[in-house]
Design brief:
A hairpin with a 5-residue loop joins strand 1 and strand 2. The chain has eleven helices and seven strands. The protein has two domains: 65 residues, no CATH class; 120 residues, Glutaredoxin, CATH 3.40.30. The protein is of the alpha/beta class.
Length: 239
Amino acid sequence: MLLTKLCRRAFKNISMVKFVVLAFILWIGCIYTCKALTNHIDSGQVNTVRAYIINHPNEPKGLRLLKELSFTYDYAIIAPLYKLLGTRLKQTPAGLKFGKQLEGMKSIVIGEAAPEFTTTDTSGNTIALSQFKGSYVLLDFWASWCVPCRKTNPALVKLYNQFKAKNFVIIGVSLDKIKAAWINAIKADGLAWLQVSDLQYWDNKVAKLYGIQAIPQSFLIDPDGRLISKNLRGEAFRT
């Protein structure tokens, strides 16, 4: 693969583990966008949403656009735009719900420490995020009932098989509420990595901690426990 050859020449003095991880990140960046890896601001997209909200502060469409934007950007970008929404729109059920979710986004900052959590796996064992410090962790939020999640799982399986021996792990966090459906989906999709859930649906405590308001969503965490990027899905995982 041309990208791999170039990486080997440029980074011949680093360890194989570091090389593989770096190649993985560069691969995602080439396929997805630099925005996905570095959280760079697409000023055109942000400005378009800002302009719409300013001109239509109480239109539901403004809130929908903001929700879509929050799927890619963190609190620092979304909060100022939320403040521009009209009071009437903020007081609607959808507006109030998004306001609460926005509060949850405060602790999710790319480059900062990933929020610690404990939850249970499929066997009821207690699992803590800190157990995996020292590895690259892809925190993947999904559910058996989520069609987009299930459609992208094959690509995730390929990714896992390619990098599982290279200091890379996946933790699947399910927003399921029926254990049997959750377990069956894991088996059907061949998800061999760690799976956790409290079976509380949208009240899943880890999902709330990470400000999840739509799935699939994912976060890449480095060996020091810092958030590197978010939402590496779809095209990002194509080989």
